[in-house]
Amino acid sequence: MALSTRVSALIVAAGRGSRAGENGPKQYALLGGQPMLSRTIRAFTDHPRVSDVRVVIHADDLPKYEAAIASLGICPGAPIIGGATRQASVRAGLDALAQEPPDVVLIHDAARPLVDGGLIGRVIAALDRADAALPVLPVADTLKRGANGNVVETIPRDGLYRAQTPQGFRYGEILDAHQAAAKAGRSDFTDDAAIAEWQGIQVALVDGSEHNYKITTAEDLALAQESLMRDDARGFCIRVGSGFDVHAFGPGDGVTLCGLRIPHTHALIGHSDADVALHALTDAILGALGEGDIGMHFPPAEPRWAGAASEMFLRDAVFRTHDKGGTVEHLDLTIICETPKISPHRNAFRASIASIAGIDEARISVKATTTERLGFTGRGEGIAAMATATVRLP
Ligand code: MG
């Protein structure tokens, strides 16, 4: 799926189930000191591939919702008021997204707050080859049908799966399917994949996660509490990588830095577009991942990389991070040269890196320095760049 694909997440939080919490609906029960819903929202707002997050809530819960998101720091879009059933709430959410329709929508239950970035990434990736994607776990227990306190039959569990969320769909298709279901008076679907199936949309199976269970009872909540404490103790892993690159000036009338063309008295010489800044950033991310360097993945000897736009190198490094279930948390770049002047372009450079890497601009730093006319950069023989990448891995 191209990085430009717009992915919206729709979190369904309109249910009235209160078995897990003493007061009010379970999605507002505290988990690790914050409302369950805040954790669920954060899993999606933190994901680099998700462009926006909308939450479907019950009209009565507005104050609770506002309190829940106040703790987040990041604001999802305005809440959407749901309907009488889960199905009606999802449809209300899909209708609301029509104002700014995404390419892809992930529909997720608020009561699955332990969903992780890796699972969200797998669902998005599956939509490359399928119109719909459903995370599942195989059924491990033997299944029985019972009646009046007795076993009636044993159901073969081969090929049976437990369905989870987020379920991923092409936005237009799932909107049409929901509208068709409403028109047909069908209100008995228990998940969105079932509506897609009913409409003949092929739904691909994706590996779910045992951690991503639905919190329904007080026991589930206690279990989630424990596993969060365990995770906090174990922690995720923060890795830092560094990158450095140099390209020499040659004849020409401009240089490419951070993916942008800057007019100059010279060009930078290189096999690709010689974007020294993006090369240093790419190597920094690869360094944090322990995955070699740019030349290993894109050998300069191969003619197909001749004149290549270096954006693809940086994108590839970000993809590798997502593949491991990780995120690029921060990129810090220093460009070293006497000319051209970098400061007038600093904001444009940040925005460009943000858009190439799919990271918030606030997590990108661009600095510049000269070397006081000393050394090769001081003599105006070329441009050097150094970069640091901070990567979070599970
Ligand atoms: Mg280079």
Describe the protein's topology.
Blueprint: E1 7-13, E2 30-31, E3 34-35, H1 36-45, E4 52-57, H2 62-70, E5 80-81, H3 86-97, E6 104-109, H4 117-126, E7 132-138, E8 143-147, E9 150-155, E10 161-163, E11 167-170, H5 171-183, H6 192-198, E12 203-207, H7 218-234, E13 237-251, E14 254-257, E15 260-263, E16 266-268, H8 276-289, H9 294-297, H10 311-323, E17 327-336, H11 346-357, E18 364-369, H12 375-378, E19 382-393
Parallel strand pairs: 1-4, 1-6, 4-5, 7-12, 17-18
Antiparallel strand pairs: 2-3, 6-11, 7-10, 7-11, 8-9, 13-16, 13-19, 14-15, 17-19
Helix pairs in contact: 3-5, 5-6, 8-10
Bound molecules: magnesium ion (MG).
The site of magnesium ion has 5 residues, from strand 13 and helix 8.
Question: How would you portray this structure in words?
Answer:
The protein is an alpha/beta fold and 394 residues long. The chain is built from 12 helices and 19 strands. It has helices spanning 36-45, 62-70, 86-97, 117-126, 171-183, 192-198, 218-234, 276-289, 294-297, 311-323, 346-357, 375-378; strands at residues 7-13, 30-31, 34-35, 52-57, 80-81, 104-109, 132-138, 143-147, 150-155, 161-163, 167-170, 203-207, 237-251, 254-257, 260-263, 266-268, 327-336, 364-369, 382-393. Strand 4 (52-57), helix 2 (62-70) and strand 5 form a beta-alpha-beta unit. Helix 5 (171-183) packs across helix 6 (192-198). The chain is elongated and about 90 Å long. Bound molecules: magnesium ion. The site of magnesium ion has 5 residues, from strand 13 and helix 8.
